[in-house]
Write a structure and sequence with these properties.
Elements lengths: L5 H5 L5 E4 L2 E4 L7 H7 L3 H12 L3 H4 L6 H15 L8 E4 L6 H8 L5 E6 L2 H13 L7 E5 L12 E7 L8 H11 E13 L1 H21 L12 H17 L6 H11 L2 E8 L2 H15 L7 H20 L12 E7 L1
Parallel strand pairs: 3-4, 3-6, 4-5, 6-7
Antiparallel strand pairs: 1-2, 7-9, 8-9
Helix pairs in contact: 2-3, 3-10, 5-6, 8-11, 9-12, 12-13
Keywords: Methyltransferase, Transferase
GO molecular function, one term: S-adenosylmethionine-dependent methyltransferase activity
Pfam families: Methyltransf_11
């Protein structure tokens, strides 16, 4: 999730349209079988195809919003690893912006008045710019570019802070991307990345997700439960997307190794923390279940159960289990450092 030449390198031609202040290529949401086959051997092409594919439904899939719930979540993630001594910053950049979840919510929380969103997926950049416009952040305050994190298309010393959420594990060369981050940061500027999967956390999360998917898609074949089953064409589409996701996810991280990568890139004041242990064990089955049943089948009571359950287990993880469970067992890694 991460201008020049990158979409061409990925082999996906996109005619250009004007979106907001910045020309953004038109996404290709319907990958051909040939493109999917090629993407199995090209992680950047896989990222373009997969995230273009997901752009229209991504916010719903991951329960992303731009209200107090996610504003608080984003700000808490930032402060958990970086504190707020330098808050607010001047200009902010997001790598792998997706639909804009992290930066747009951080801007609403007061992190920065001006921001730039970048992603390798044209569909995601478009979605982020639309969300910025809807949130009244599009009046010259947010620009967007299709960009490769290993070759960030901004000048040296352009930003006071660079952020990203669940992006580093998609980038083939993380150290090269962090060197680029340090290049575009002003001296003393800070980067914050959150939502990166740990090696152990990814193992149990994928296992729980796989078991949940198999259980739901099997049980909903039974008479009387078929109304809980998504149409087969949608399940087949999910399976095709999952095949790309296996290529898109390039890395899982050991916390100490992630810190070492940042230091090799030249970062100072590097810190890594982890979070979500029992919360991840609830969250992944919940999200998988939601993806397996028809849209709208689950109501507000389910949403409240999922959200409050995650909140309570996150509290347990943060205040109790973090004292006794090795940090590498937690699912999410957060990292910060300075230029």
């Amino acid at each position: 999730m991460w201008v020049g030449g990158v979409t061409g390198d990925a082999g996906v031609p996109h005619p250009t349209i004007s979106e907001g202040r910045t020309p953004v290529p038109v996404p290709n949401p319907h990958a051909t079988a040939e493109q999917v086959a090629a993407a199995r051997h090209d992680p950047k092409l896989a990222n373009v195809l997969y995230h273009d594919w997901e752009a229209g439904s991504y916010d719903d899939k991951w329960s992303i919003s731009y209200d107090e719930r996610c504003i608080t979540y984003a700000a808490d993630r930032f402060r958990a690893i970086a504190g707020d001594a330098d808050w607010p910053y001047g200009r902010a950049l997001e790598l792998g912006c997706g639909t804009g979840f992290f930066l747009l919510n951080l801007m609403q929380a007061g992190l920065a008045a001006w921001g730039s969103v970048t992603d390798l997926s044209p569909g995601m950049v478009q979605a982020a710019l639309r969300n910025a416009e809807r949130l009244d952040l599009g009046d010259g305050r947010v620009d967007g570019r299709v960009a490769d994190a290993e070759r960030i298309p901004y000048d040296d010393d352009s930003f006071d802070v660079v952020v990203g959420h669940a992006v580093l594990h998609h980038i083939p060369d993380v150290e090269a991307a962090l060197r680029e981050v340090l290049r575009v940061l002003r001296p003393g500027g800070r980067f914050v990345f959150a939502g990166e999967p740990t090696r152990i956390g990814d193992r149990y999360a994928r296992r729980l997700g796989s078991l949940t998917w198999k259980a739901v898609t099997t049980v909903t074949r039974l008479p009387g439960l078929r109304s809980w089953r998504r149409p087969q064409v949608e399940l087949d589409e999910s399976s095709r997307a999952a095949a790309l996701e296996a290529v898109v996810d390039q890395h899982v991280f050991d916390p100490d190794d992630l810190a070492a990568i940042a230091r090799r890139a030249g970062a100072a004041d590097v810190r890594v923390a982890t979070e979500e242990f029992t919360a991840a064990m609830l969250g992944w089955p919940v999200r998988t279940f939601e993806a397996a049943v028809p849209t709208g089948r689950l109501g507000a009571r389910w949403a409240m159960f999922a959200y409050h359950g995650w909140q309570r287990l996150s509290w347990l993880d943060r205040h109790v289990l973090s004292r006794v469970v090795p940090r590498g067992w937690f699912y999410n890694a957060l990292i910060t450092g300075t230029a």
